[in-house]
Design a protein that fits this description.
Layout lengths: L19 E4 L2 E3 L9 E4 L4 E4 L5 H14 L5 E5 L5 H4 L9 E5 H8 L3 H9 L5 H4 L12 E3 L2 E6 L2 E7 L8 E5 L4 E5 L15 H13 L4 E4 L9 H21 L4 H13 L9 H30 L28 E2 L23
Parallel strand pairs: 4-5, 5-6, 6-7, 8-13, 11-12
Antiparallel strand pairs: 1-2, 2-3, 3-4, 8-9, 9-10, 10-11
Helix pairs in contact: 6-7, 7-8, 7-9, 8-9
Length: 359
């Protein structure tokens, strides 16, 4: 995989920015920190995709929404993931119904006071932001889905599709009429993807599925609108990491040796601002750690199948695309959601996890 050219785009800005209309009644803001939120205006109300983490930005986004569609209720907030950069701003958009994948509910249910304290402490070098985070409220999803769901309001349609890959909860929003997909953190444009909770083969599958939708515009979890071709760069990155980790594993190198040997190599594949280098290096290490465990399991299973402890012949780091229904956007188990007045979440426990990728 050749080294990437340097790009001028940076994440981590803390300004407010202006909403951008990318299709009639579909808006985003690419300046907020933690995520690129969006919303769709319908005759019956609004459907939001993700919410800004930093309170000042979340409040500004609500003001922009109300200026654009005064008097219209927020029907739903859809969280593409459980990570704090996409979901901790939910509290600033109540009253509404929050919807997410069932695994997101499980993860967010494990967000304890200790988790809130870690979020607060993660901004110790930015006291102006830290001061805003003294009253974090975890707003859990009211409605969850497993494979897919369909929202139809005011003559407009949004399909919510579970894809996994980035985390066990990652889902996307597909607007078939507008040919726009909000793809969350499955897509990172000219950035090192955060892979600490990833399933790399599932991630590749998700990227290919997104390309099969027929979208003309993709809204990534961070950064500007792009096209389906940008998913190929992320797939190439993941495939490259899998191949190189496999090389180290088959050479008898430990996980720590793989991390030591590959961080510098991987660092060159996407641009890294100097002030974020240490953090990105740590992020790359966590991804190598994750992929190493995947490779280890795959190789052990292959050896067991041979029955003699030998390695199976090398295989490319790919995965078959899942069989799809007649509608490529929806999988079996599709649910069309009722009016946003009921709660369907189940209290199924959860665990607290670290998420440092988006800050």
């Amino acid at each position: 995989m050749p080294a990437r050219r340097r790009a001028s785009f940076r994440i981590g800005v803390s300004g407010l920015g202006e909403r951008q209309e990318i299709a009639p009644g579909v808006f985003i803001n690419t300046v907020y920190r933690g995520c690129t939120p969006g919303f769709m205006v319908t005759d019956e109300g609004l459907i939001l995709i993700d919410t800004p983490l930093i309170p000042k930005q979340a409040k500004d986004w609500r003001e922009q929404i109300e200026l654009e569609a005064p008097g219209r209720p927020i029907l739903y907030v859809f969280n593409t993931d459980h990570h704090r950069g996409h979901a901790l701003g939910n509290q600033y958009f109540l009253p509404t119904t929050v919807i997410a994948h069932e695994r997101a509910f499980k993860e967010m249910s494990g967000y304890t006071e200790n988790f809130k304290e870690r979020v607060y402490n993660s901004f110790k070098r930015e006291p102006d932001i830290q001061e805003q985070l003294t009253n974090i409220e975890i707003v859990l999803p009211d409605v969850t889905f497993t494979d897919s769901a369909r929202l139809q309001y005011g003559g407009r349609e949004m399909k919510l599709i579970y894809v996994g890959g980035h985390t066990p909860a990652t889902s996307i929003a597909w607007l078939p009429e507008e040919k726009i997909a909000f793809v969350g953190d499955i897509l990172w444009v000219d950035q090192h993807p955060y892979m600490a909770q990833a399933d790399s083969l599932e991630w590749i599958d998700a990227l290919r599925r997104i390309r099969s939708l027929g979208a003309e515009m993709l809204v990534p979890g961070h950064g500007p609108v792009c096209g389906p071709e940008d998913t190929e760069k992320v797939e190439e990155y993941i495939q490259y990491k899998r191949r190189r980790v496999l090389d180290y594993y088959r050479a008898g190198k430990t996980k720590n040796e793989a991390k030591s040997g590959l961080v510098g190599e991987m660092l060159e594949l996407f641009p890294v601002p100097l002030e974020r280098k240490a953090k990105i290096e740590s992020q790359i290490k966590s991804g190598i750690n994750r992929v190493y465990r995947e490779i280890q399991r795959e190789e052990e299973m292959a050896s067991a199948q041979l029955g003699n402890g030998a390695f199976a012949p090398p295989a490319p780091a790919t995965v078959l695309v899942r069989e799809q229904s007649a509608d490529p956007a929806l999988m079996p188990g599709t649910a069309t959601l009722p009016a946003p007045t009921i709660g369907q979440s189940e209290q199924n426990g959860g665990r607290e996890v670290e998420q440092e990728a988006e800050l």
